[in-house]
Amino acid sequence: MPRPRKNDGPTLMGKKAYDKAYDLAHRAEKSTYNKAYHEAHRDKVLGRQKIYAIAQRKEIASRQKAWGAAHRDETRARRLKRNYGLTIKAFGDLLLAQGAKCAVCRRPEWGRGGPVVDHDHKAGNVRGILCGRCNMAAGLLGDDSKIAQMLSDYLKER
């Protein structure tokens, strides 16, 4: 589509096409203006945003829930890659290597959140796939095998 000329107003091009062409032609200019306005009127802008968020709380929550449901798989894939360097296939392979069970308790039930990647917080390497309960227990013990052994001994004695 050719750029609009001064004489090509909304009446000759059609309002939508003219507006789109204008926005494309003036994108950088509008961006600079908007940034300057937001900087100069930061409190006013944040106040309006807060009022909108409060007034539209249910609507916003509904949209976020719908978006999350529609994009669950790609969000999980992105999180696995970013946090652990795992692809969905590598995650599935690791899970199958464990027999599709928790690496600690060997139960096939994962709990509400599904299978969880267990990783060494210091080195960052992936150790296995756990259920939510075993992952929580490992975290509460500070990933310390000595404390885990002491707890195991204590439970055996009693």
Walk me through what this model shows.
- The structure is a single chain.
- The protein is mainly α and 158 residues long.
- It has two domains: 11-65, no CATH class; 85-157, His-Me finger endonucleases (His-Me finger endonuclease fold), CATH 3.40.1800.10.
- Helix content is 65%, strand content 6%.
- Strands 1-2 form a two-stranded antiparallel ribbon.
- The model has no long low-confidence stretch (mean pLDDT 89).
Secondary-structure topology with pairs:
Elements: H1 10-13, H2 15-25, H3 27-40, H4 42-55, H5 57-70, H6 72-84, H7 88-97, E1 116-119, E2 126-130, H8 132-140, H9 145-157
Antiparallel strand pairs: 1-2
Question: What is the number of domains?
Answer: 2
Structural class label: mainly alpha
CATH superfamily of the largest domain: His-Me finger endonucleases
Strand content: 5-15%
Strand order of the largest sheet: 1-2
Amino-to-carboxy terminus distance: 81 Å
Cα-based radius of gyration, to the nearest Å: 27 Å
Share in helix = 55-70%
Question: Any idea of the CATH class of the largest domain?
Answer: Alpha Beta
Largest sheet: 2 strands, antiparallel
Record field, number of beta strands: 2
Output the CATH topology of the largest domain. Answer: His-Me finger endonuclease fold
3D shape: elongated
How many alpha or pi helices?
9
**What would you say the CATH architecture of the largest domain is?**
3-Layer(aba) Sandwich
Order of helices and strands: HHHHHHHEEHH
Can you tell me the residue ranges where pLDDT is under 50 for at least 5 consecutive residues?
none
Global mean pLDDT? 89
